[in-house]
Amino acid sequence: MKRSSSIISVLLFAVISTVNSCPPSDRAALLAFKAALHEPYLGIFESWTGTDCCHNWYGVSCDTESKRVAEINLRGESKDLFERAGRYGFMTGYISSEICKLTRLSSITVSDWEGISGEIPKCIASLPFLSILDLNGNKITGEIPADIGKLQRLTVLNVADNQISGSIPASLTNLSDLMHLDLRNNKISGPIPITFGRLRMLSRALLSGNSITGPIPASVCLIYRLADLDLSLNQITGEIPSCLGKMAVLATLNLDCNKITGGLPSTLLNSAVGNLNLSRNALQGKIPDDFGPRSYFTVLDLSHNFLKGPIPKSLSSASYIGHLDVSFNHLCGRIPAGAPFDHLEASSFMYNDCLCGKPLRAC
Ligand SMILES: *[C@@H]1O[C@H](CO)[C@@H](O)[C@H](O)[C@H]1NC(C)=O
Ligand SMILES: *[C@@H]1O[C@H](CO)[C@@H](O)[C@H](O)[C@H]1NC(C)=O
């Protein structure tokens, strides 16, 4: 009698502890994920012991109802780690495809470890609940999985500062919930998909520092919420679509260091854009005389192009010009006077054909 009751209590205990802890299959997948990584300084994986991976495993969180692993959040530059260890982390190894067995994952952040290499497991594209994928700041190679577009709940895709190659997959523009796309500083080549404008929820598109070729698709202007478009330091050709200047909330437009030709669209000078860098392209023609009270620029950098003609008089009617750079063009004529110019230095205007007047020599 006594014996059987103790067996029952043991069984009961086993049942209760399985109910409260993560499923053994999730635990096994986490341990296999960990086995492919090596983190020598902080010892974050030392906390990955015991049966309940939902409890006190550093960076692991579970869904409160299903008890399935919902988040992996490991940041090499996390403040919390820094406070504990007094240094930022470093990790080598690769992201094991075992991670794809965690089919309830909604968020994967394995960022700023500098040393993680290998490829993004292709199976990541079949995690049905994935909303955040942040692998920023590692040494990841290979391509963005071709069927990334299957991640219908993805809102954040950040693989910046890695060594990712290949082109932007056509399926990416199927990510109808995507809000934040950061592919900066990789080795991505090929064009921006012509259907880019299908990313209707996108607010930040950061593609700077790659080898992207081809034109800026005009469909970008359909992205009503786009606030920040950074295509700088690529090999982009063609003209600047003038519809960019008609976008409701586009505030930052960085197209510097590309091979963009054609004229400077007048729409851009009197738009929501307040941070405009078009430096180091092959823009031709005159600066349109279309500044006005809506022109409010913290940065307006048109340097290193082939612009000619005068600096338009309407620039005096701009509400604000914080930093202006028109150096290294073929501009000529009197620099207009007015409040927006009072603080500007000669370097803003140097290396043109024949500009004159304050702050350069008198005309
Ligand atoms: C985008 O999604 C649609 C509908 O799910 C699918 O038919 C199409 O093949 C997808 N496009 C790409 C390029 O994956
Ligand atoms: C504009 O882009 C150029 C080239 O990338 C860069 O050197 C410059 O600092 C940028 N201008 C501003 C004001 O940030």
From TrEMBL:
<protein>
    <recommendedName>
        <fullName>Leucine-rich repeat-containing N-terminal plant-type domain-containing protein</fullName>
    </recommendedName>
</protein>
<feature type="signal peptide">
    <location>
        <begin position="1"/>
        <end position="21"/>
    </location>
</feature>
<dbReference type="InterPro" id="IPR032675">
    <property type="entry name" value="LRR_dom_sf"/>
</dbReference>
<dbReference type="Pfam" id="PF13855">
    <property type="entry name" value="LRR_8"/>
</dbReference>
<dbReference type="Pfam" id="PF00560">
    <property type="entry name" value="LRR_1"/>
</dbReference>
<keyword id="KW-0677">Repeat</keyword>
<dbReference type="InterPro" id="IPR013210">
    <property type="entry name" value="LRR_N_plant-typ"/>
</dbReference>
<dbReference type="InterPro" id="IPR053211">
    <property type="entry name" value="DNA_repair-toleration"/>
</dbReference>
<dbReference type="InterPro" id="IPR001611">
    <property type="entry name" value="Leu-rich_rpt"/>
</dbReference>
<keyword id="KW-0472">Membrane</keyword>
<dbReference type="Pfam" id="PF08263">
    <property type="entry name" value="LRRNT_2"/>
</dbReference>
<feature type="domain" description="Leucine-rich repeat-containing N-terminal plant-type">
    <location>
        <begin position="24"/>
        <end position="63"/>
    </location>
</feature>
<keyword id="KW-0433">Leucine-rich repeat</keyword>
<keyword id="KW-0732">Signal</keyword>
<dbReference type="GO" id="GO:0016020">
    <property type="term" value="C:membrane"/>
</dbReference>
